[in-house]
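Thread: Modeling a multi-component assembly for a lab meeting

Hi all, long-time lurker, first post. My supervisor asked me to bring a structural picture of a complex we are working on to next week's group meeting, and I have zero experience with this. I have the sequence lines for every component (426 residues in total). Could someone generate the structure of the whole assembly? Inputs are pasted exactly as I received them:
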Amino acid sequence: MTAPTDRPCDRFEREGLLQLERGEALDPHFDTCPACRQARADYQRLVRETAALDAELEPTPGWQARVWQEVERRQEGRPRGGSRLLWWVPALVAAGIVAAVALRLGPLAPPAGLRVEVEPGPGVRRGAEAQPGDRLLLEARSVGAAQAELRVYRDDHELVLRCSTQPPCRRRGDSLRATLTLPAVGTYQPLLLLSDQPLPAPTAGGLDADAGAALEAGARVELGEAVRVR
Amino acid sequence: MTGARPTPGEPRDPEADALTALDRGDREAALTLLMDAYGTAIYRFCRRMVTDEELAEEAHQMTFVQAFEALETFSRRSSLRTWLFSIARHRCLDALKIARRRRRRFEPMAEAPETPDPAAAAEDHLADRDRTRALRRCLERLPPQVRTAVLLRFQQELTYPEIAAICRQRAATLQARVARSLPTLRRCLESLGQAA
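Re: Modeling a multi-component assembly
Sure thing. I ran the full set together rather than chain by chain. Output:
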């Protein structure tokens, strides 16, 4: 990779790039030599592309909860060291544990109270995975709770469904059903909240924050199997 | 210490807010602010540093676990962002070592066929014609220390004094390293069918 270059302006590669990185004024030659100007433009493009390379990447859903879970695990492993964390984080950690299990091991650990199915939409199938236009069918039991609410979060943050007694939810006895046409690619996480008290409203914090708030308010939180739409 | 509360609509300063939280001994609030502010940037850095997605995610999460444990002793000689990237760099280099060990252990069992598969080669070639993929591949081929400097400089847009603090090397060394890496990347892209 260190072979001599055959490009017409290797002086720019040898000197100009270093001058730029040092924040020095560029040698006037590089402004007058057309090949050097072209080389400079090529490198500016390369730098822009490197900067933009992963602009769409986001951490996986539930990562903050997993960090807290690991923090907690390590603190418990230590001799008593004044863990102030223990008095306020349990709700978040519990949500994290449930979320981590449901999001990472979803198919291995199906939840008991919230059933999730994907019904293929009318479009042409590209494969076995769910795709936009498919319908997500949710069915849950309120098991005597005064308040039951279904929610679906897309990519951990966007609340795309929230209902209780009004459409798109249908409640009959202790059965609660809802249907959602999957609008776009992403990971859809269904959530069932049960409580005898009014449930906390969703926040801008997304799934982790909302599940933590619900647990803190004494609600029972069940995560359904996450559905990935491609 | 800036304790001033921002007026409505004014963007918050996560550094100042996290330091204020630390001043009142609230490590949990400080870490939450840091995760919100820098979680994505550090994730992108780790993903590009460590090719294995699972190891990159672990490095990313362990950065914040370790940060939580060290927050009480944060010396404030650098910004929290620089400090976090310094931890992330170590965790990513550790992840690369793990990946190397795994490869050494498992590669002999999963050796490529002796005769190259022409279809696979053609697919590779097609894939490499995609410039973004090619650029990712070329970055992966840079030695880790060089890749670190390139990513911190161009992906994270850090200054050389900041990168020097993270990498514990002189800024001049890093400037030369980054400047030399660009022709290397250019030649690599050309070898993958991507003209500069």
